[in-house]
Amino acid sequence: MIALSVKQMYPLTSKILRFWFGFAETSARIEKKPEWFRSTEAHDSIIKSRFSDVQIEASLGELDYLKDYPEGCLALILLLDQFPRHIFRNSPKAFETDTKAREVALSAIKSNYHTYYGDWQRIFCYLPFEHSECIEDHNFIIPFFSKLNKDKFYNTQKTAIDHMKVIQRFGRYPHRNAILCRKNTQEEEKYLMNPPYWGMTKTQVQTTKEKIRKIPKKLSKTNK
Length: 224
Fold this sequence. Notes:
- By secondary structure, the protein is an all-alpha fold.
- The protein contains 11 helices and no strands.
- Helix content is about 65%, strand content about 0%.
- The protein is globular.
- The N terminus and C terminus are likely disordered.
């Protein structure tokens, strides 16, 4: 593969950021999008069809020069951290570029790029550390999450802390065990009986979705 020039890359960077955030400007104020954390097979397919080739280039290091500017750095983080989770869902390959994603995210933080990002763009710069199974990464990133507006991002901050607590307890994410062919410990088996939504296995997510679908529409409206 031949790496694109910076001049050629800007449209691609813009394409990635517009697709994910709705804006190419990394400082733009945006609202949370439901597909970010509650994706569907259709959304996964769109990402796979549009960005699979570029994601491979990013995984091979052919787009590393994107780290030289804020927009490119954020686009590269998405390619290495978020997109694989859609393209390779329920496969070990979903996590193969996590280490590289953290390296790019760390570069963004050290270069102070993250200080120019809007709130949600900043969060996606921090997520590679939240996805880590290394407690040091969580200890590093929690203070950055803590600086977000607590009124607006309380749940985001709580989720980051919850991720850290799971790593403190198990040293890994139990919900990944089946995908990575890791055997559950007895303690992990107990945990997986009632995990948080983000820590559910594929089967548990499907079961939960089925239960939600079966809730009568009138009852659903009453509870809103």
